[in-house]
Design brief:
alpha/beta, Rossmann fold, 8 strands
């Protein structure tokens, strides 16, 4: 029997009033219905990372261990000012080899579905040798959230989430062979 992959669903926003925990839980629930991998929420906020180059560098050891333990990722990314949250960029910058030769999917949200944030994230992932998959579910603040704060996804997104997870699992499994 094949060993299950470990896939982290990374919540990238840390700001007060964020909706990423709602989106992440929805993705986790859909992923767990599949039973094809071990999925877990990894919240950047829990790691309290100081800005890179400031503060105690020992604070990132738990973050390093968590990312190292994962075979692939699903990034839940919100769009702030036509880009991704600074907290996610900071968390990505803390590590290099721990990200390498892994796969990632992106679920983005914002006024334009978070498309610009996802495009910025893709460039950073490429530099970290993370293979991002093609299917990219985009969630609208106007259509998938009530009052832009309560997540109520349209049913049409479930198909895209499952296609993205198919791709993340396939690529994560293939890339795991490079890390052995």
């Amino acid at each position: 029997m094949k060993e299950k992959l470990n896939i982290g669903i990374i919540l990238g926003s840390t700001r007060e009033g964020r909706v990423s925990p709602q989106v992440g839980k929805w993705v986790l629930d859909l992923a767990n219905e599949r039973g094809d991998a071990n999925y877990e929420i990894v919240d950047v906020k829990d790691y309290k990372l100081p800005l890179l180059g400031e503060g105690n560098p020992e604070k990132f050891k738990d973050w390093q261990a968590k990312i190292n333990s994962l075979d692939g990722f699903v990034f839940i990314v919100s769009e702030y000012n036509h880009s991704m949250p600074a907290s996610l960029k900071n968390a990505l910058d803390y590590l290099q080899p721990e990200w390498n030769n892994k796969a990632a999917g992106i679920v983005s949200y914002g006024s334009t579905g978070g498309a610009r944030a996802a495009e910025h994230l893709r460039g950073i992932l490429a530099e970290l040798s993370v293979a991002d998959v093609r299917t990219h579910p985009t969630l609208s603040l106007f259509l998938d959230f009530e009052n832009m704060s309560v997540f109520k996804p349209q049913d049409l997104h479930k198909k895209n989430i499952n296609m993205m997870l198919d791709q993340v699992n396939a690529w994560s499994g293939a890339l795991k062979t490079l890390r052995k």
